[in-house]
Specification:
With 123 residues, the chain is α+β, with helices and mostly antiparallel strands. It contains three helices and seven strands. Helices cover 33% and strands 35% of the residues. It starts with a strand and ends with a strand. InterPro entries: NTF2-like_dom_sf.
Length: 123
């Protein structure tokens, strides 16, 4: 955005950029982007990138497959699952609850070529 004062031009940044009151939008967009990248990697069969998307100490409840803890168990779950031909993952009815600047929860309905389910709370 430009404004003209007398004969000189100065650039004015919109006031909402970097505003502390809009951090929740920035966090939500970051979560959506990370989720989009994870889905793209899943659909491309890139299990290694999918596993890297998790914190190494994460706990995943993948029912009915059980609870998976840490990188090794998560890798042991996703690699064979994706290699089996699971693809065409789609999230619908996506909701993001921003807790603070470093924490948000994603929930969604998910479907793919081999089934469907619900993501109750992805942190």
């Amino acid at each position: 955005m430009w404004t003209k004062s007398n004969t000189e031009k100065t650039q004015i940044k919109p006031s909402f950029i970097g505003d502390i009151t809009t951090f929740h939008h920035e966090v939500a967009l970051e979560v959506l982007n990370a989720s989009k990248n994870w889905i793209m990697n899943f659909n491309a069969g890139n299990a290694v990138a999918c596993v890297k998307g998790y914190d190494r100490n994460v706990l995943v409840r993948a029912m009915p497959f059980g609870i998976k803890k840490g990188s090794s168990e998560i890798s042991g779950f996703w690699k064979p699952f994706i290699s089996s031909g699971a693809t065409n993952l789609i999230y619908t009815n996506v909701s993001i609850e921003v807790v603070n600047k470093t924490t948000a929860f994603l929930s969604a309905d998910r479907s793919m070529n081999i089934g469907k389910g619900i993501i109750y709370q992805e942190k």
